[in-house]
Design a protein that fits this description.
Its EC number is 1.1.1.53. The protein is of the alpha/beta class. The chain contains 15 helices and twelve strands. The longest helix has 19 residues.
Length: 380
């Protein structure tokens, strides 16, 4: 317990964090959970056989709060120090994509409810399942979550989750929400719900008060964006040669290579995103998975590269829909990117969105589509 709390208190003492009673209470609760999980008897041990059944799993934790209040930081402290083998951390959206894929496979060979089989397979080697950014914005997820998580917890899994919303606000105003309410009740019954809404927005602080749209797209702009990446991810700049990459599943068996991806922050070139044959599903996958996107080398656009411009419009719509924070280097300011020829009038709306995405009000929004939207609206 002292290890996690000592690490947290060390961050406060070093000035990396500001004193925050809610944050420290959550750190203490996660420290206790770490201790409980590490003290639990291993699967198949003598204590299991004496009891004649699986020991009850430790109670989980649900951390919710506004953007930048330290949820991911606390999850990092907890997960990195949790000394058990059977643990898994996954973005909630990626987990639900996996669940639906597994359900489709079960239905190919079995009849009846696939959820018990899927749950049993998912927890085969997991005692602690940690979710980043729990958000529910489509009816397909909403209809299965209660039964799925009842099965997961019934299999002895401890759930730890972060979210921008309290459980009672998940899938708010969604279609047939009454079928989703048992999931809310399950979360409140099986997890300790803790708020993190302190006065300091660390992500906003790390974004800084300076520019986030750099013109022109030169070496100085690239260096400024690189510095922003290291601030947002706490990754040591001296290790820049080893920044992790990611192959993002964008659906249909296709992958999108993300050359730099860490802690919800992704770096792309404009060519990677918009010069290749990409569509709305690709950009929605990016928007769901990353809370901040850095794009390097946005050119001026016109009729001669209308395909790239059309993809860029779809990309911006997806990022805007999910309140993704955007930093970029470009050949011009947003309202000067596409000013003449076929498509210039339609691009005005995109330029307006790009300008809004630089505002303080937009930066204060939490990542994720509004739960009031039932299924993913197509980008326009």
């Amino acid at each position: 317990m002292t290890d996690l709390l000592a690490a947290y208190d060390g961050l406060v003492a070093d000035g990396e964090l500001k004193p925050d009673p809610e944050q420290r209470a959550a750190a203490g609760r996660l420290a206790r959970l770490q201790q409980e999980l590490e003290a639990a008897p291993p699967r198949g041990s003598l204590l299991w056989r004496i009891a004649g059944r699986r020991p009850e799993a430790p109670r989980g934790v649900y951390l919710w709060g506004a953007v930048g209040r330290g949820k991911s930081m606390l999850m990092d402290l907890f997960y990195d120090r949790l000394a058990i083998r059977r643990k898994r951390r996954v973005h909630f959206h990626a987990f639900m994509l996996e669940v639906h894929a597994r359900m489709r496979e079960v239905r190919k060979s079995e009849s009846g409810d696939p959820i018990p089989q899927v749950a049993a397979a998912l927890v085969e080697d997991v005692r602690c399942l940690a979710f980043d950014e729990m958000v529910v914005n489509n009816s397909a997820d909403a209809m299965i979550l209660s039964r799925l998580f009842t099965a997961l917890i019934g299999h002895g899994v401890t759930v730890v989750a972060t979210s921008n919303r309290p459980p009672s606000d998940l899938y708010k105003n969604g279609l047939n929400r009454e079928h989703f309410l048992p999931f809310v009740a399950l979360i409140e019954a099986k997890l300790d719900v803790m708020s993190l809404n302190g006065p300091t927005d660390y992500r906003r602080h790390r974004l800084g008060d300076g520019k986030r749209w750099f013109v022109p797209a030169d070496a100085a702009a690239t260096e400024a964006l690189s510095a922003a990446f290291f601030r947002l991810t706490d990754y040591p700049p001296e290790d820049r040669a080893h920044v992790p990459s990611l192959d993002l599943d964008v659906g249909g068996g296709r992958l999108l290579h993300v050359p730099k991806a860490l802690k919800g922050v992704a770096v792309f070139s404009f060519k990677r995103l918009c010069a290749e044959a990409r569509g709305a599903s690709d950009y929605l996958a990016v928007a769901r998975h990353f809370h901040t996107v850095i794009i390097v080398g946005i050119p001026r656009m016109g009729p001669e590269n209308r395909n790239e411009a059309a993809r860029f419009v779809t990309l911006v719509d997806a990022l805007y829909e999910y309140k993704v924070k955007l930093l970029a280097s470009a050949a011009a300011e947003p309202d000067q990117l596409y000013v003449a020829g076929d498509g210039a009038f339609e691009f005005e709306r995109t330029a307006s969105r790009l300008a809004e995405m630089q505002s303080d009000d937009y930066l204060a929004l939490g990542h994720g589509q509004d739960d009031a939207a039932d299924d993913l609206a197509p980008t326009r």
